[in-house]
Design goal:
Elements (H helix, E strand, L loop, with lengths): L3 E2 L12 H11 L1 E11 L4 E12 L2 E6 L1 H6 L3 H17 L1 H7 L2 E6 L1 H6 L4 H9 L3 E5 L8 H5 L7 E6 L6 H6 L2 E6 L1 H7 L3 H15 L5 E3 L5 H8 L5 E3 L7 E2 L12
Parallel strand pairs: 3-5, 5-6, 6-7, 7-8, 8-9, 9-10
Antiparallel strand pairs: 1-2, 2-3, 2-10, 2-11, 3-4
């Protein structure tokens, strides 16, 4: 897929402040979409997560932080990215429908709420019932009653539980379909026997608040076995695949050997 950027009509003067230079830098950055699979502990493909690779035209081979990139965008620009991602996913609709696989799209709370005022995105969501929005920030989550005003959103996921603001208070503020456990917490708990025991207890607790826990960042067969012997429902990470181009989607195994 071609690299895309938000805007082409930006100031080029060298007489600007460091803040303006930083803003200009991020505005000039380009996006490339990839995906990573999510497998159930049974080995069945559950979903793919669409990921955004970011680079600057001056160094296209160097990958930049997607988090820093999205932090630098205005909400209307983030909505533009979401619209772009949904249009890409729609091109692959037969794959998701035929194989009963879902696709997760990362979004922050304010941008999710801005969808209320964006009919094109709302129409696309209605056309793609297999899309799931994955909330990436807890400090600005929408209220339950506000979510109820957009039934087309479908079940929500919570990203990176145990990292930053995505903590226990998030469990009771919104109803989630799936909750993703951050790799940082997974690795921390895996360092000791006590931590590994707590890992299963923690997942059992989180399961009370959702339909399943997805463990992020599984990179080794040993980690995968640990997930499979726990109350986790699924996992994601380099053990299954690094982020790959959407041209590889049709080659993705639906069932692990």
């Amino acid at each position: 897929m071609m690299m895309k950027n938000i805007s082409h009509r930006l100031p080029s003067s060298t007489d600007i402040s460091p803040q303006q230079k930083a803003h200009l830098f991020w505005q000039q950055c380009q996006r490339l979409y990839t995906f990573q699979p999510i497998y159930q502990v049974s080995g069945r493909l559950l979903a793919i997560e669409i990921l955004t690779a970011v680079s600057h035209p001056t160094a296209p081979e160097k990958r930049l932080s997607p988090e820093s990139y999205f932090d630098a965008l205005e909400i209307h620009q983030r909505l533009h990215v979401v619209h772009e991602q949904l249009r890409l996913l729609k091109e692959w609709q037969p794959f998701f429908c035929d194989n009963k696989v879902v696709a997760s799209v990362n979004i922050d709370g304010p941008t999710l709420m801005a969808i209320q005022q964006h009919p094109p995105v709302r129409r696309l969501i209605t056309e793609l019932p297999w899309v799931r929005f994955e909330l990436t920030e807890h400090h600005a989550l929408p209220q339950e009653e506000m979510i109820a005003q957009m039934p087309e959103l479908g079940p929500l996921w919570l990203d990176d539980f145990g990292s930053g603001m995505a903590n226990f208070s998030a469990l009771t503020e919104l109803k989630y379909d799936y909750i993703k456990l951050s790799r940082e917490l997974f690795i921390l708990l895996g360092k000791t026997d006590e931590g590994r025991a707590l890992f299963s207890v923690l997942l059992a607790l989180i399961n009370r608040y959702c339909n399943g826990v997805i463990v992020e960042g599984v990179e080794t067969e040993e980690e995968w076995k640990q997930v499979c012997s726990s109350p986790a429902m699924a996992a994601q990470g380099y053990f299954f695949s690094r982020p790959v181009s959407f041209s590889q989607l049709i080659h993705l195994p639906l069932q692990l050997a």
